[in-house]
């Protein structure tokens, strides 16, 4: 099997896993679960020199106004994360991608 075949198989396996996990959780993901996922991500950051997220990612405003977060205009769910110039260090929580089920782009 070539690289392309392997990548495709891996992608299909991940997609299948995604659906299995989505259907087996009792809660339907929404903007609140997206917020929880982003707060979990924030909690996993060990180094953040610019401290941008510390005050900006505040629950007093919608996550759609948070720096680096883009929501879909129709469903108001997170579709893109751009954390690329924030010099972040930390681990991405393993379940983040299941919760941010509308996420399409991650920088
Ligand atoms: C999101 O889903 C949770 C759990 O299903 C529910 O309690 C909450 O009211 C929902 N929030 C919104 C904004 O739809
Ligand atoms: C967070 O940053 C965004 C984009 O720079 C800005 O529009 C928003 O007002 C900030 N929110 C807070 C609470 O600082
Ligand atoms: C990500 O954000 C940085 C800083 O705001 C910006 O310079 C860069 O162009 C953005 N990248 C994309 C692909 O939107």
Automatic annotation (TrEMBL):
Taxon lineage: Eukaryota, Viridiplantae, Streptophyta, Embryophyta, Tracheophyta
PANTHER family linked to this entry: DNA DAMAGE-REPAIR/TOLERATION PROTEIN DRT100, L DOMAIN-LIKE PROTEIN
Pfam families registered for this protein in UniProt: LRRNT_2
Domain Leucine-rich repeat-containing N-terminal plant-type: residue ranges: 32-71
Protein name: Leucine-rich repeat-containing N-terminal plant-type domain-containing protein
Organism: Gossypium stocksii
Keyword annotations from UniProtKB, A to Z: Leucine-rich repeat, Repeat, Signal
Superkingdom of the organism of origin: Eukaryota
Signal peptide: 1-22
UniProt-listed InterPro entries: DNA_repair-toleration, LRR_dom_sf, LRR_N_plant-typ
